Amino acid sequence: METASKENTSYSVYTAEYILSRACFMPDTDVTVVVTGISDAETLKELLPRLVDTFGADAEVLIAHGVYPSDKAAEGTLALSSLAGALTDGTYPANAGAFGKDTYLSFAPKPLTEKKRYNFQDFVSVLGILRGPGGCEWDRAQTHASIRTNLIEEAYELAEAIDLNDGGMMCEECGDVLLQSAFHTAMAADEGLFGFSDMLTAICVKLISRHTHIFGDNRANNADEALSFWEKAKQKEKKHKNYSDKLNSVAKTLPKLLYAYKIQKAAKKSGFDFADVNGCYDKLYEEIDELKEARGKEIKKEAGDMLFAAVNVLRMLKIEPEEAMERAAEKFINRFKAMEAELTASGGKLDDFTVDEMEAAWKRTKRIYP
């Protein structure tokens, strides 16, 4: 990749080979982007999906020959979608000689508000405008604390999109989660704490240093071994001296079922665990009995112990407690709705019925929602 400037025109040059070798191609579209190394139609066909993903199907592309920006000859501009169609039906190129080692594509820059596709730098620019002088008053007024809960809400909305397997919703919610992270980074930059380069450097360093089986000498034969190498690298990075340090490192702001689950998983690594799930069941029954006997302030403490023991059972069964609770709650809602619909079908309200009548209807709904 080469960045240059000539006659007050800035441009970046990328080879087709470079673009095809990257999982993600995000050039600076604020300058002219030139793509070289397109010696035949097959290379262009292979390249097109990446270009469409970067610039959009409607983006205008100039096909020319020579050394940019001194063109020997130009085929003119056309939309990427039209080029793709012409390549598919064979109407372009008219002959194989239309391509050569000096064939290149050129994409002209566009103002921010006229772009059809955006990259990370555009995203940062938009956020900078919103938080800059003359920007949005709401965005300018926010603090780390004022939007703290927004991140939690957006994370849960993304989780819901994943559960629904809704690609469109996932795309939107991934953007919302990214926005929260970027918003905090932008505020941190204003405060002189760290900037986008610092944040991106930190996550890249972490990914490289913890994937020792990819960027180091270790070799993983399966996902479990890869995770083990990650954990060892993390322990070294965090300078955990003992297992208590690991337990203390679990974020206390996590949902409490998940918090308990992670603490138990961390403790297990020390060997402090039940021999099998039967031991967990016995502990749960013990805690239930103690809760029954509890009085006054002890009730709350014993209730927590019972929940913690229940999470232990799920952990031993390799069941995520948050997921199990979510499904149980959804099942309860569905059964309750069906029970209410059955009893009130002829009019009236649910509280007009006795507990026994509701219980009988509830049992019937269990056949619908087992």
N-to-C order of helices and strands: EEHEHEEHEHHHHHHHHHHHHH
Largest sheet: 6 strands, mixed
CATH class category of the largest domain:
Alpha Beta
The coarse overall form would be elongated
Describe the oligomeric state of these chains in a short phrase: single chain
Task: Please give the domain count.
Answer: 4
How many β-strand stretches? Answer: 6
- In CATH, the topology of the largest domain is named Methyltransferase, Cobalt-precorrin-4 Transmethylase, Domain 2
Distance between the termini: 59 Å
The main sheet orders its strands as: 1-2-3-6-4-5
Task: Give Rg in angstroms.
Answer: 30 Å
Q: How large is the count of helical segments?
A: 16
In the CATH hierarchy, what is the architecture of the largest domain at level 2?
Answer: 2-Layer Sandwich
Mean of residue pLDDT values: 88
Classification by helices and strands? alpha+beta
Q: Which strand-content bin applies to the residues?
A: 5-15%
Low-confidence segments, ≥5 residues, pLDDT <50? 4-8
